[in-house]
Amino acid sequence: xxxxxxxxxxxxxxxxxxxxxxxxxxxxxxxxxxxxxxxxxxxxxxxxxxxxxxxxxxxxxxxxxxxxxxxxxxxxxxxxxxxxxxxxxxxxxxxxxxxxxxxxxxxxxxxxxxxxxxxxxxxxxxxxxxxxxxxxxxxxxxxxxxxxxxxxxxxxxxxxxxxxxxxxxxxxxxxxxxxxxxxxxxxxxxxxxxxxxxxxxxxxxxxxxxxxxxxxxxxxxxxxxxxxxxxxxxxxxxxxxxxxxxxxxxxxxxxxxxxxxxxxxxxxxxxxxxx
Length: 275
Hints:
By secondary structure, the protein is mainly alpha-helical.
């Protein structure tokens, strides 16, 4: 693991692997969304605008859910909200994702693009972003897994422990890599679905179904603090809600599409340009 790529003590400059991979995940994910938008006849520049607003929202709402999930930790010392560790953390993914989706709904109306089409355009980029972002998590040592005696177990460095608190006295499940390569697989599946989709919303709903199921399972192997209720983590509870909703919606809209009935966003032509 390599928490820091470059460190220059004389000028107090440090380039963290996590920060670089997180920035790269945003850039690549947004680029892919703009590319898919252009292929469908939309103005990619407007998609970049929407993506930047979604990014800002994501940064805020991911930390809000982090505060909610770990409220005891922050209530004990509210000033932790203003700490460097909190400000440089990515927060809880679902908080950022749901916040970004919410703001995208209003931006889609403003830029005159069907929201379901916008969501489908963004879905593969979100998965690619997670692939890159979780590689950064692995490099930093955050989001660590439970101890294991399996050959797949990894042991983190003392520097990673200093930065994130990851245990270094045992080999741990590389849950960051579990999620990273699962996200890459999901991204590939979404690109195939995007080329053959039968109705608007099929790509984003497929993403929600696949990722929620994967995240629910992977959470059993994680061992970092992340909130808990009824024996499940915050992300597991959200996944347990999103997965069945997405699966039922996929089946329902697929059935309607087969019958030739109206599906999400059917009232607007797919090739309508953003204004």
